[in-house]
Amino acid sequence: MTATASGRTLGADVRPREVWAWAMYDFANSGYTTVVITAVFSAYFVSVVAEKAVWATFAWTAALSASYALIMLTAPLVGAWADAHAAKKKLLALCTVGCVVSTALLWYAGPGTLVATLVLIVVSNYFFGSGESLIAAFLPELADSEAMGRVSGWGWSIGYLGGLLSLGICLAYITWAQGKGIPAASFVPDTMLITAALFALVSLPTFLFLRERAVPHRLREGTMSNAWGRVLETMREAQRYRDLRRFLLCVVFYQAGIQAVIALAAIYAQEAMKFTTQQTIVLILVVNVTAAAGAFAFGYVQDAIGHVKAVGLTLVGWIAMVSIAGMAQGTTAFWVAANIAGLCMGASQAAGRAIVGVLAPPARLGEFFGLWGLAVKLASIFGPLSYGLMTWIFAGDHRTAIMVLGVYFAIGLAILRGVDMSRGRAAALAP
To answer: Which pLDDT belongs to residue 350?
Structure first.
C-alpha cells in the first residue's frame, strides 16, 4: 500500500475511479431495500396481495426470515468458492441479475399471487444479501488497512443517496399516477420495474471498472465441506474474548429491533397510522436523510463520550422511539418517533461496527467481522418474525407488536452494561 493524492488511503494500483465504481454498487442496490423492503412494496403486500389477512404481516416477515436463513447457510460456501476461483465479481454479477430479475417479476404481484410473490421476495432478498457480502469483500483490495473505515463510509454515505434517488423517482411517479386516478394496485407494481431498472443501470460502473485482484488457488480437499467448520471454529475462538462475545450477544438483541423497524416501517405507517403510500414514501425519504446525518455526526459523539456510552445512548433513543410510536394517535408524534429512529439507526449501526473493530484481534478482523455479520443476520430472522407473530396473535394489533421491540432494545442495553472496552481491547492485543 502506498500513498495517493488523497493521502495513505488506497492501494498502490488502485485509482479513485475504481473506488467510485465500487461505491456505486451501494448506490445501486440501496434502491431495492428502500423501495421493496421498507417503503413501498411491504405495505402493498399486506394490503393488496394478502388482502389484509390477520396473518399478512407474519407471512411477510416469514419470507424475509427464510431469505436471511438461506444467506446464513450459504455465505461461508459462497465465500470459499469465490476465494478459490477469484470469482467475487462473477458471483456479484450473478447476484445482481438474480435480484434485478426477481424484483422486476414483482410487477405481477397482486391479488391471487400470494405464493408466487412470497417466493420472489425470498429469492430477491437472498440475492440482495449475498451481493452485499460479495461487494464488501472487495474493500481490503481497494483500501489501505488504516483507511478501510473511511472508504467503507464513502460507500455507506453514497448508499443513502441511492436509496433517496430511487425512492424520490418512485414518489414522483406515484404522485403522477394518483393525479391520473390510477389505483395503487396498478402503480405500486410499476415501481418494481423502476427499482429493478435503476439497480441494473447504476450498477454498470461496478462491472466496468472494478477489478478482481484475487488470484485463483486450488481448493484444498474438504474446503467446501469445512467452510461452516471454519465459522464454528471462529465462534469457539471468540470464547477467549469475553467482552467481544458479550457485545455480539448484545448485537443480536438490539439489531433484532432495528431490522424489524427496517422491514416493517411502511406496514406500521399504513396499518396503525393510516398513512397513504405517498405519505409513507415522504416519511421514509426524510428518515433516510436523518439517518445519514446521525451516522455522520454520531461518530464525533462516540469519540467524545466512549463507545459503550454511545451505543447505550442510541438504545435509550430506540426505547423512546417505540414508546412514542406505540402510543402515537396523531401524525406529529409519529413523525417525531420516525426521526428518532432515523438518528438512532445511522448512529447505532456505525457505533456497533466500530466496537467490533476495537474488540477484535487486529490480525483476525475478517473472521470476527464475519461473526458480526452472522449476528446481524440472526437478528434479521427473529426480530421481524416475532413482530409478525405478534400481529397474528393479537389480530393485527401493530401497536402491541412495536412495543415488543422495546424489549429487545432493553435486553441489549442490559447486556451492554457488562462490556468493558479497556479489558476487551487488552484481550484483543494479547499474544
So the answer is: 67
